[in-house]
Amino acid sequence: MVKLRLKRCGRKQRAIYRIVAIDVRSRREGRDLRKVGFYDPIKNQTFLNVPAILYFLEKGAQPTGTVYDILKKAEFFKEGTSN
């Protein structure tokens, strides 16, 4: 199973997170299938590769809670969702 989750980068006390598609059995710093964006909590910047994220979500990838919140904040799920 594939998940969209955060992978920690950056230096000590200055974390930057990559949003990656990764196998659920891999550890946090493990090898990812593809990088689909990044999130900088210090500068509050987000970059999302929308076609890649849509591809993995259509294939059944599940975002973690934090990644889901980041995508929701970027209004990723606004269109076409009728729950």
UniProtKB/TrEMBL annotation:
Localization, UniProt: Plastid, Chloroplast
SUPFAM superfamilies xrefs: Ribosomal protein S16
InterPro entries linked to this entry: Ribosomal_bS16 (IPR000307), Ribosomal_bS16_CS (IPR020592), Ribosomal_bS16_dom_sf (IPR023803)
Pfam family, one: Ribosomal_S16
GO annotations of cellular component type: chloroplast; mitochondrion; small ribosomal subunit
One annotated GO molecular function: structural constituent of ribosome
UniProt GO BP: mitochondrial translation
UniProt entry keywords in alphabetical sequence: Chloroplast, Plastid, Ribonucleoprotein, Ribosomal protein
PANTHER family (UniProt xref): 30S RIBOSOMAL PROTEIN S16, SMALL RIBOSOMAL SUBUNIT PROTEIN BS16M
NCBIfam families (alphabetical): S16
Family membership: Belongs to the bacterial ribosomal protein bS16 family.
Name assigned to this protein: Small ribosomal subunit protein bS16c
